[in-house]
Amino acid sequence: MIQMQDVWKTYPNGVMAINGMTIHIDSGEFVYIVGSSGAGKSSFIKMLYREEKPTRGEIFIDDKKLADYKERHIPYLRRNMGVVFQDFKLLPGLTVFENIAFALEVIEEKKDEIKRRVMQVLDIVRLKNKARFYPHELSGGEQQRVAIARAIVNNPSVLIADEPTGNLDPDTSWEIMHILEEINDRGTTVLMATHNREIVNSMRKRVIAIEGGRIARDEVRGTYNNES
């Protein structure tokens, strides 16, 4: 599903963010990416959806080399990859329904199919009753659920979540995690970068710890800080 082969990332200012990383993530896995601020998590995540390019090395998604994609083809890559951010990135002037539908309108999906798929993902995130609401009328947790619905409306094989619970209270964070787990149970590979120690330690999924741009730990049922 996802492979990195001897990947390095050095920024123009000389900062080395990723230092010779090699990793393999299978289809259907749920993986936590943990590490301190500045460890390289964000660079790791951004390279997967081609916001950043590696300085050296190869990255494969679904056996396709990311370096082979021309810039005009990057949107096609991202259609098979959902991304959820800490700050939601919803369009304030659009309703919940319209925010999610937008991802399908840009690929000129038929109106009937758009409605069917939008309502389907709203059901998954338990927000069918909020379809006509605007983002400012929702709680933070509800906005994040809309962002998740938008990310999965194209039925992506991979969902990348970058600190999706970072701005949420503990109870709401757990609601988001149960939804992500349900999405994973449906077959989607989930990668989640997080600082949430309680969630990582409780759920015991695969944990990849990054320190200094390198993989410090890779555990099948890991914890945040290598705890037993």
From TrEMBL:
Membrane topology value: Peripheral membrane protein
GO molecular function: ATP binding; ATP hydrolysis activity; transmembrane transporter activity
Annotated keywords: ATP-binding, Cell cycle, Cell division, Cell membrane, Membrane, Nucleotide-binding, Transport
InterPro entries linked to this entry: AAA+_ATPase, ABC_transporter-like_ATP-bd, ABC_transporter-like_CS, ABC_transpr_LolD-like, Cell_div_FtsE, P-loop_NTPase
Compartments in which it is found: Cell membrane
Main subcellular location: membrane
Keyword Cell cycle: yes
Protein name: Cell division ATP-binding protein FtsE
Naturally occurring in which organism (per UniProt): Salisediminibacterium halotolerans
Lineage: Bacteria, Bacillati, Bacillota, Bacilli, Bacillales
